[in-house]
Design brief:
The chain is α+β, with helices and mostly antiparallel strands. It folds into 3 domains: 2-121, DNA Polymerase III, Chain A, domain 2 (Roll), CATH 3.10.150; 134-242, DNA Polymerase III, subunit A, domain 2 (DNA Polymerase III, Chain A, domain 2, Roll); 255-373, Proliferating Cell Nuclear Antigen, CATH 3.70.10. It contains 6 helices and 26 strands. It has helices at 7-18, 78-87, 138-148, 204-214, 267-281, 332-340, and strands at 2-6, 32-37, 41-47, 51-58, 67-70, 72-77, 92-97, 102-107, 110-115, 134-137, 163-169, 172-178, 182-189, 198-203, 220-225, 229-234, 237-242, 261-266, 289-294, 299-306, 310-316, 320-323, 326-330, 346-351, 358-362, 369-373.
Length: 379
């Protein structure tokens, strides 16, 4: 196996698949990078058993300056190989595999020889049916991930809650995540000709990794499902993730249908005030801040205290408020993460009582995005 290619183009592909390679895997060969060279391209594969990423460097793309002299497959130690390629002196590089998988990498006056492994020992990637394809705008899907993955559970005691629950029906994609203290739900309408249907739970860690890859991409991403795998295809790159097994809890009943107190804020203004109040609450063992709402006075007071440090109190004027007076306490970290994903929009917060979950929604398209937070009992 032998080829010559543009080093920067190769590094770009290398960086993509390296996202899936971990030095902590229990399967030794997965610390390596698999390379399959055919007559038309170089196919690079990285995997950590949960996530697998595959991308190709095609000879047909003139930017790759790829010349394939002989074909073959090999697994190379990912960390060493990546560091070598990134530090090579010339803009082109050549790679040749000799006897016993000894691999020679050359660029300019520099030459490295590293030991490779037989690619036959590398686990096969799952077969995913690519017949039923769901097309999603990459920027919208990245937004959906960012808005929901904040609420996935970090506790392995209920594995199903460590993922985001995706359902597709009637051209509506619904994404829901909850850690049982808060919930995030986002709905997206798909084109009318997209009549697919599915119900899956994708691990939050997989989605975070996918989100990084979608940054700045303005094309569509294709999604395909098999029994226990999901495949996302973006140009020359394929991203595989395992699915979580089990039934996701019915979260629709958690969202209150009515409220007794409502107020509107610019999300950024409320976020700044919560951040200030949490400076002291973080020093306290219970990490709680209190909201005192008096709709008739059109004022909301945010307060927090730490017995060791001191107290904080700040009055805020909402854009509007209505309903009953209320005092409610909550974890400020949950509130901050919820507010950040709204960006600079105006939001409506609805409360039913001091001990019932409250919701945050944008003032426009309220049905499409809901954040729910469970209050903290302080008495």
């Amino acid at each position: 196996m032998k080829f010559v290619t543009n080093r920067n183009a190769f590094i770009k592909a290398l960086n993509t698949v390296s996202r899936a390679i971990s030095s902590k895997t229990t399967i030794p060969i997965l610390t390596g990078l698999k390379m399959d060279v055919s007559e038309s391209d170089i196919l690079l594969t990285g995997s950590n058993a949960d996530v697998s990423i595959q991308t190709s460097v095609k000879a047909s793309n003139p930017d790759n300056e790829l010349t394939i002299k002989s074909t073959g497959s090999i697994v190379l130690p990912a960390r060493f190989f990546s560091e070598i390629v990134k530090k090579l002196p010339d803009k082109t590089m050549s790679l040749e595999v000799g006897d016993n998988f000894q691999t020679t990498i050359k660029s300019g006056n520099s030459e490295f020889t590293i030991n490779g492994l037989d690619a036959n020992g590398y686990p096969h990637l799952p077969e995913v049916d690519t017949e039923n394809t769901v097309d999603l705008a990459a920027d919208i899907f990245r937004q959906v991930i960012g808005q929901t993955v904040i609420a996935v559970s970090k506790q392995e005691s209920r594995p199903i809650l460590t993922g985001v629950h995706f359902t597709l029906a009637n051209n509506k994609l619904l994404a829901v995540a909850t850690d049982s203290h808060r919930l995030s739900q986002r709905r997206v309408s798909l084109p009318a000709d997209d009549d697919g249907k599915f119900d899956v739970v994708i691990p939050g860690d997989s989605l975070k990794e996918l989100s990084h890859m979608l940054d700045g991409i303005d094309q569509n991403i294709q999604m395909n499902l098999s029994e226990n795998q999901v495949l996302f295809t973006l140009g020359d790159t394929r991203f595989y993730s395992r699915l979580l097994e089990g039934n996701y809890p019915d979260t629709s009943r958690l969202i209150p249908k009515s409220s007794n107190t409502k107020m509107e804020f610019a999300a950024g203004d409320l976020l700044s005030a919560i951040e200030r109040a949490s400076l002291l609450s973080h020093e306290s063992r219970n990490n709680v801040i209190k909201l005192t709402i008096k709709p008739n006075d059109q004022v909301v007071t945010i307060s927090g205290n730490s017995p060791d440090v001191g107290t904080v109190e700040e009055d805020l004027k909402p854009k509007s408020s209505e309903g009953e007076d209320l005092e409610i306490s909550f974890n400020p970290d949950y509130m901050k993460e919820a507010l950040r994903v709204f960006g600079q929009t105006d939001i409506e917060i609805s409360f039913t009582s001091a001990l019932r979950p409250f919701t945050l929604v944008p003032t426009e398209n309220k049905e499409d995005f809901i954040q729910l937070i469970t209050p903290v009992r302080t008495f």
